Amino acid sequence: MKSSYKILSLFGIDVEMHFTFIAFILGLFLFNSTLAALLLIVFAFVTAHEFVHSLVAKKYKIKVRKIILLPIGGMAVMNLTRVKPLTEVKIAVAGPLFNFLMCYVLIVLMNLMNLPFANAFTVIKEMNLSVALIVYYAFYANLVLGTFNLWVPAFPLDGGRILRAVLALKMNFEKATLVARNISLVIAVLMLAFALFNGSIWISIISFFIILGAIGEYNGLINWKYFSKIKAKDVLSNDFLLVSPNLNAMKLVEKMREKRTVYAVLKKEFRVVDLQKINDLSKKAGDYAEKVPLVKLNSKAGSILAKMNQFGIYLFPVVEDNKLKGVVKRIDIEKLKQVNQLIKNKYAK
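Now predict its structure.
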């Protein structure tokens, strides 16, 4: 099962909803449809916030894979490991600046609609769905998004990225990320203590989000450094199932069972069949084959893993000069990392 689902693509950037976000919104609609509708409006601004980050990143030739919407916010997936500190600051600041700009736009809209600013809290408290409620809610949503992201120096918020960029002016990127991670964890613990003392569920959730984001940011950097050294030829496997596109699906399933694999590669076409997608045994293998990226012998493991996560298929054909050299499996990449780590821990001097 995929963890996220594409809902739109704009400026060459895909926007996906994580399954937890979908479940959260649907569940909220059952209990409070007004709040659910308002949160959808908030997430429209969250998406725009992430698009602004992404567009600035693309301006500096940084590849943006996608934007993922989660119940606690949005996340633009991009690789910032080789970005100059000043560039990272520009990317990080762009999102909050957009939110502050929207605050000014909404203030102008309030004046044009003759909506007194002093009535905002009363209208929001009453929660009667109306144009006034939408405008007021949008204003405060942008104000909170901009302020919180900019002034809280913790990953994965923009303030944490700005902090890392400033630290990177005085130390190497890895150490700057480590220091920023530790500061993020301290902030998260303080927020959690405050939340427990005051009984705030949302601040508790945000603090856990920061903890996971901070740890993930540093671990992601370490993994990227490791996987950037591994190439497809280092984990090339000849243990795979090669079949004809015209093979009956029932026979294909039997071959998969014998081979103990959930994937098959089609001859010549190099498309991949996923056992989980087969639902009619009367069809042919080619009817279930999916086109996946064809990697080369010198393709880096990091980019291969990123594409595997994107496609939800964890076996890619390795092709050179239109000839199938073998396959790369996610499990083999992960096993190689485990073996190397064990050797490093056991025999490191």
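Strands lie at 4-10, 13-18, 64-70, 73-78, 242-243, 263-266, 272-274, 289-290, 315-320, 323-329.
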